[in-house]
Structure prediction request, 181 residues.
Amino acid sequence: MLRFEVWPALRHNVCMSNDGRIHVAITGELSEPRMVFAEKIDASSNGRFVKSVTLDTHYLVATKFDSFKAKKAARLGTTVISEQDLLGYLGSGVFPETALPEKPVHQNHFPEIEWSKIYDPARTYLLTYIDALGNGSIRRIVATAEGNTVGNPSVRWLAAYDGEGFKTWRFDRIKELEIIE
Prediction:
C-alpha cells in the first residue's frame, strides 16, 4: 500500500533550490534599475534573480515593506535583506545559504483510499468530469495519484491539484483525461 504524500520536491526545506542556486527577488526602487541588479545576481556564483516571492525564494531585497512582495515574504518567512546586504553579497560573489521557508506537508485526508499509482508531477492534464448531479466541468489539473476505496476496490479515485487546491475525483465520473503538457 502506498501512503500518499506531496511530491518530494514540494516537501524539502533545504538551503538550495531545485536548480542549485539561491533565488533572490526585489521589491521597491534600488539605486540602479532592477534589471541591472538582476544581471548582477545572475552573474554571481550561486544567485538567480526571480520576479516573484514563492516558497522557493531565499531572499527578498526590499526598500519598502508595505509592498505586496514584502507582505508575502513576511507571511512565508522568506529572508528579507537591504540593498546594502545585496551589495555585500554581490561584492563577495556568493550569496550565503539560507533555509527556504517551511513548506506545508500534505496529510492524507483520504484514509479510505488506498493509493496504488503515482503520476509524473511534470504532466498537466485536461479533465472532463461529470459530478453526482450530472453537472459537467472541464479542468486543468496536475494528477498525482490514483487508488481504490479500501474494502471496495471497484471504486477508483484520481488525486490531483486543481489550481491551488488538492481534490479527488471518481474514475467512473471522468469522461476524458487528456495529457496536455
About this structure: Confidence is low (pLDDT under 50) at residues 1-14. Residues 34-43 form the longest helix (10 residues). The beta strands are 22-27, 47-49, 59-62, 79-81, 113-118, 125-130, 136-149, 152-162, 165-170, 174-179. The two ends are 29 Å apart (CA to CA).
